[in-house]
Amino acid sequence: MNTAILLAAGLMSVTVLVHVIMGGAQIMHPLRAAGLPRLIGAVMDVVWHGVTVVLICLAGALFWLAGALFWLAWHDNPALLWMTCAIQFGFAGLFLWYGTTQLHSLWPMPQWVIFLGVPALSLWGAA
Q: Which alpha helices (DSSP H) does 1-127 contain, by range?
């Protein structure tokens, strides 16, 4: 079992919970209460839940790569590792860009920290 990648999988699992619990309360509930047109609300829900699916898949892929499931050995799959990293680097870039350009600070949306930290930990574990 790869301990560093297992830790990355655990951190991504916590990220899923934070996204669902805190993000729902801080972002989705106010947006739903804003009285947006139904189509915009439906698209917003699809995007929100789509991100949730992606985060769950990232956590699952990392658990797979770590060999954390008792019937699995550690899996050396560079393509899967780099795909998980690319998605997370993409999320980090979006949070950095929009934090910098629209909010003029990186700290109102610090999610970029986890989306840089988890792939860094994953790559270190795979090295």
A: 3-18, 29-33, 38-66, 78-102, 111-126
Reading the block at residue 96, the tokens are 């950095």
pLDDT in tens, 19-70: 999 999 999 999 999 999 999 999 999 999 999 999 999 999 999 999 876 6
What is the rounded distance in angstroms from the CA atom of residue 55 to the CA atom of residue 84? 10
Q: Take residue 61 and report the two structure tokens written for it.
A: 């892929």
Residue 73 pLDDT greater than 90, yes or no: no
The amino acid present at 16, given as its one-letter code, is V
Instruction: Give the total residue count for the chain.
Output: 127
Instruction: Give the chain's domain count.
Output: 1
Quick one: which of 48, 125, 123, 116 has its CA closest to 87? Answer: 116
* Phi-psi group of 74: left, alpha or beta (phi > 0 → left; psi -120 to 50 → alpha; rest → beta): beta
